[in-house]
Sequence to fold (491 residues):
Amino acid sequence: MSNKHTNNYKKVLDAFTREELHYISQVKRFFEWYEGDADFRTAVNAGKISSEQQKRMKQIGIHFEPREMALLWEKPEIITGCTCMTYEEMPKEHVEILKKYPLMKLWFKFILRKERQFKELCSQRFPVLNTRFENWRNRRIASAQSELGAYNQFIDHPTLAFELCDGCSVQCWFCAFNSKKLQSTLDYNQNKDFFRGIARVCTDFFGGKAAGMALLYYATEPYDNPNYIDYMKDYDEITGSPVCTSTAVGTDKKWIDDLLAYYRARTLPWPRLSVLSTKMLHKIHDNHSPDELRDVSLHMQMKNSRREKVSGGRILSRKDDMRQRDSTNYLQDVVPQGTIACVSGFYINLIKKDIKLVSPCYTSEKWPYGYRVFDEASFDTVEDFRHTVLEMIERSMPDTPPVHMPLRLRDDLICKPLEDGFDLVSPNQIHHFQNKSVFKALGELLMNTPVSYQEAGDILVDKYRQDPFAVQAVLKYLFNNGFLDETGLNT
Ligand code: SF4
Fold:
């Protein structure tokens, strides 16, 4: 199997023996229970795991003694360190203590490797055959890095997302995409050729690897389409890349078995399960053994879970809108995650037959779903899809800024004029433009009513007497690094 994910994840597993992996799955299960069940967590933190709980441990396939996890109640501060540094980086005394807990040590080795693999995966950039799309996407990734900060390291910026459903049956209270109730699904028998045709167009345009960086759901639940796995297999066959799956329906045994059969055969760390309640967690543990779920991440989404929900969509809150932040007090507080969106590319609804060009941004009143929309269009047939995508690339992914494009900053940026230039402040970073006369002039220009990109060049040269080469270089820099607002280019 020649797949980026396969190779990377296989490397993680290959570092362990079968027996070690067997124990890793059990420790993983223990931590899932710990994270997803407040009562169990309280008992563990107090070092008082009841006989009932010990019985349950055995029932759900955890066969080591609770004592193996005693670090959790004896030296919990060491655990925090273990999850963010390698064994070699740890203080010597912690290493010594950890030696007494071999299962814990094994577990930390595993999750550190897995996390490193995931970061590597997110930082890999596969060439998109279409240069305009490639450059546009690189600008969007630079923009996300500036706006979302460290969180961007966990976004792999898929090029495509397809909806195979209209609406979602699950209706999570926290849905940051505010998905409406399930209305309909894309019938496989009637649309198989249509779907395969669309997948072929994307592969022709962008190449198999880039087209394979896709999701077959976005603001929907894959489970809702009864042929989701058939669509997935078709897509894999055409692009040569299996797509990932995240589902909030972890309790349907057959659904999970089918997904496991697909991903296990390819050595992939999927599906991911969103666990909506402690009851659901218990059902998942009852349905599948630790070994079966070894490669499956469980994301605790209970109301009381420590994982913070992104304030968007259904739970959009004005107080968390970073656009409203106090510009005199920027970068003072911990900045929350900001978005659950990940696609930097085409978001295609195959039922409504519409396409949006999108990229992640900090959720705001203006962008309530955590992505900016750069262009929108509709299509009918596969051929029509081909033309529509090309037209969108043509009009919304310029290689150089169109002369009429306003020299306007991204809407998350605050421009702070300084004596010798200016700073651009995003929710997560400050970008300095200082110590050059062209920066001083440009800073003044940016504070005024936006002029067009071309006018800006002329004004800086004619009125501010700046060197034309320096002017072109800085304007190009702003554009290429995603500082400029590219939404509404064709309005
Ligand atoms: S979070 Fe996912 S599963 Fe939940 S309502 Fe939204 S789209 Fe559906």
Notes: Residues 128-248+301-396 form one domain. The radius of gyration is 25 Å. The pocket of iron/sulfur cluster is lined by residues 168, 170-172, 175, 177, 179, 219-221, 248 (CB under 6 Å). The first strand starts at residue 160 and ends at 163.
